[in-house]
Amino acid sequence: MATNFKPALIVVDLQEDFCPPNGSLAVANGRDIIPTINTLLSLPFALKIATKDWHPADHISFASNHAGKKPFTDFTTIINPTNAAETYETRLWPVHCIQNTAGAELLPELDISKIDKVVEKGTVKEVEMYSAFYDPCTAIDSAKEGFKTVVVAEGTRGVDQPVTTWDKVKEELEGKGVDVVSMEGEEVAKVRNA
Ligand SMILES: [Zn+2]
Questions:
Q1: Is residue 2 part of a domain?
Q2: In the chain, which end has fewer C-beta atoms inside a 10 angstrom radius, N or C?
Q3: Residue 136: is its pLDDT beyond 70?
Q4: Is position 149 within any domain?
């Protein structure tokens, strides 16, 4: 084994608004992954980070901030504030994860004492920010930055289902150099034994 093996864990957006029973953008069975995440948090990762979607009330990703537009089905164009030539289309959502509201809280079942650092994202009104690095997707950006990156399948639920199926997401991740692994796989075992 390489002596410089230094695994980090990023727990992405395990917040009330993304989970039943009260989330405004609840992912079906979102709370089911908590035991998996707590197991991962108990392993000897060198660094454990949790991200929080953390929006101002006038955030660009909320359909209610665009006259006549509906959440889930409508899109808006986002312009890079530092480079107006760079634009991309992003889906619009119901209002969610407003800074300092109950919906933006991390799930209380999470073993928060094990988390070293919380990273807030989506804090700028004009920009959508799905990723802990930049956008649009944390795992893909991590691979792009040169980190060997894996997504633990049991610890993942998709906000876009059934529009985007898990198989499609997996294909995209793997196409960008991110491995999708299981809790039983050798990657997690390697951390267990680190
Ligand atoms: Zn958001």
A1: no
A2: N
A3: no
A4: yes
Q: If you average pLDDT over residues 94-114, what whole number do you get?
A: 97
Q: Is residue 3 part of a domain?
A: no
Give the Cα separation of 114 and 22 in Å (integer). Answer: 25
Domain tally, the chain:
1
Query: Which contacts of 136-145 are long-range, i.e. CB under 8 A and separated by 24 or more positions?
Result: 136/88, 136/90, 138/10, 138/12, 138/51, 139/173, 139/178, 140/172, 140/173, 140/176, 140/178, 142/10, 142/178, 143/176, 143/177, 143/178, 144/176
Distance 122 CA to ligand 1 centre (A): 6
- 11 strand-pairing partners: 50
Q: Distance, CA 97 to ligand 1 centroid (Å)?
A: 7
pLDDT tens-place string over residues 6-48: 999 999 999 999 999 999 999 999 999 999 999 999 999 999 9
* Alpha carbon of 145 to ligand 1 centroid (Å): 23
CA of 57 to the centre of ligand 1 (A): 11
- The catalytic residues are 13, 121, 137
